Amino acid sequence: TAVSWFLARRVQQSVASVARSAVAIGAGNYRTRVPDRQLGTEFTQLSRAINQLAQRLDSQDDIRKRMLSDLAHELRTPLTTIGAITDAIEDGIRAPDSQTFDVVRTATTRLQRLAEDIATVSSADEHQMPLHPATITVNELLIATYEEAADLFTDAKVTLGIVTTAARVHVHVDAERMSQVLLNLLTNALRHSSPGQRVVVKADTAPAHAVRISVVDCGDGIPPQHLPHIFDRFYRTDSSRTRDAGGSGIGLTIARSIVEDHGGTLLAESLGAGHGATFTITLPTTTRRHIHRSTPGTEFSVAFKHRTRRGAADALQRDQATN
């Protein structure tokens, strides 16, 4: 009958439309969408599923293109520096002295760090990063990271403090990887702080047998529109400044992956530009018996005045915090 023919024709056209869309998506045209021809629940669900897949692929493709563009920029900057200095030496404009070699060495180090970061973030994305966990106290973790970061803060004339009420709490972590996370958060906070400002690491116990470690700064802050993307690869709130400061743009991505591989979370908070930022790590503690009642907070601070790099370790002061 005419009705049967009409319905069969519509079904045939819809199937053909789905097939064409699938072929187009398979060919890389991720902005193709399947129209909903109102042929019933099954066809509607199929159309929506294909459209959602195309949308996800389109988003991933945009991320990939942006990542490759940023990666090209990251590679181009130190390579341009090395090339320019080499040309200047060959032309006799610049002497091959220690200062010149220092510039080349810095650019080379940046390239090496970028290569290592790319390899690390690839492993982190696939959750294949090797971990060697051991049971340590929060205090041991914080002090190890503090000692590594102290000179950086001293040179920048930014005070670094640690306040903890969870010093004796035990966590089962890869100490080297977790120190890497904390050092990344600290250098990120330092990058966005000005001389005379203060960065504080706070540690306390959290519900559900967990410990919180927060890195708090009062620097540039993060605008609200950037917060959801702060852990995306190569994402920057201020690309030019971050690039000048030497950031690869994937440190926070790596940090979050490491924390998640430990069964924890890493979150970012900020009230907006100019209001500082807080990055909070939450980690499970080893056992309930290791969770102690809060003790008087302990603070470690760097006195940066009249300090030298060699004497940085000796100037570590341990005081009772006023909580």
TrEMBL record:
GO cellular component entries: plasma membrane
GO molecular function: phosphorelay sensor kinase activity
Reactions this protein catalyses: ATP + protein L-histidine = ADP + protein N-phospho-L-histidine
Entries under Gene3D superfamilies matching the protein: 1.10.287.130, Histidine kinase-like ATPase, C-terminal domain
Cellular location(s): Cell membrane
Chief location: membrane
InterPro entries to which the protein is assigned, alphabetical: HAMP_dom (IPR003660), HATPase_C_sf (IPR036890), HATPase_dom (IPR003594), His_kinase_dom (IPR005467), HisK_dim/P_dom (IPR003661), HisK_dim/P_sf (IPR036097), Sig_transdc_His_kin-like_C (IPR004358), TCS_sensor_his_kinase (IPR050428)
Pfam families per the UniProt record, alphabetical: HAMP, HATPase_c, HisKA
Domain Histidine kinase stretches: 70-287
Enzyme Commission number(s) of this protein: 2.7.13.3
Keywords, sorted A to Z: Kinase, Membrane, Phosphoprotein, Transferase, Transmembrane, Transmembrane helix, Two-component regulatory system
HAMP domain residues: 9-62
The protein's enzyme class: transferase
Protein name stated in the entry: histidine kinase
Organism: Gordonia otitidis (strain DSM 44809 / CCUG 52243 / JCM 12355 / NBRC 100426 / IFM 10032)
